[in-house]
Fold this sequence. Notes:
With 243 residues, the protein is α+β, with helices and mostly antiparallel strands.
Amino acid sequence: MLQPLLESIIFEKASFKDANNVAPLYIKVFEGHPWYEKLTCNTKFEGCGVTYVEEKDGPDMNVVNGRSNLFILDGSYDNCKNCDSPLDKTLTNFWEKDNVVSDYSKATSDNSFIGLLGSKVSKKFFMKKLELVGFVWGFGVESNTMHNKDEIANLLVDLSIDPSSTFYHSEIGIDPEFQMKGIGTKFMSAFTDEVRNNGFSNLIYRTTNTAMIKVYEKLFKNHKELFNDPNPSKDQIWYGVKL
Length: 243
Ligand SMILES: CC(C)(COP(=O)(O)OP(=O)(O)OC[C@H]1O[C@@H](n2cnc3c(N)ncnc32)[C@H](O)[C@@H]1OP(=O)(O)O)[C@@H](O)C(=O)NCCC(=O)NCCS
Ligand SMILES: [Zn+2]
């Protein structure tokens, strides 16, 4: 039987030069389903936790990555329609392209940054065309770019894990139009090789995303688990594996 042809995807190292190419894809991946990171009533600031989605994205999705209560955004307002506390506009501002470009540039300037970009190759009249379809990156846990640095440092000390050989996988995204074709799994596998080749022997990550948990489970089913620890201050779990 004929196998369906997999998209031909090439992986290249990500660098600061790619910022203008990466930013629009990054925004596309995170501002819509299933993350809706654009506007929330942030519980950090005593909000009620509802997430606002665009009319075109809702309203049939009642639970999105563990977030219930999606509200349709039908205007821009300052206070939550549900609990009246001030809405967290920092996220909304973050999703401007310039901010994503600057955030990415900051990430790539970190010494321990390792990232890969995946592009679909197509040929048209002998011209090769590359279309960016995915990104993945992270940092060594000792880097200043590391989120929750103190929290993870304490966890590693408690478990006698050497931080200098431990890498934090921070971001991954596949263009929604190219998801569910196995690209995320291939991509993460290539990235893990790259991280290992750079001398790291442990990988840590934190997620609640169903698809990503499946990817990690598939790739690391034969790897030694170092920890699987609920993040005390958040709704997510830290995982650690030996590479
Ligand atoms: C997570 C992500 C990178 C996976 O990429 P992908 O190319 O779709 O992954 P794959 O096609 O390799 O699929 C991986 C597994 O997840 C499953 N999966 C994919 N999308 C899913 C979804 N929406 N719900 C449940 N399972 C899903 C696939 O069926 C597959 O499992 P299987 O091998 O048991 O069939 C992609 O969904 C994405 O970019 N999501 C938005 C960004 C994000 O959430 N990033 C992670 C933040 S921690
Ligand atoms: Zn609210």
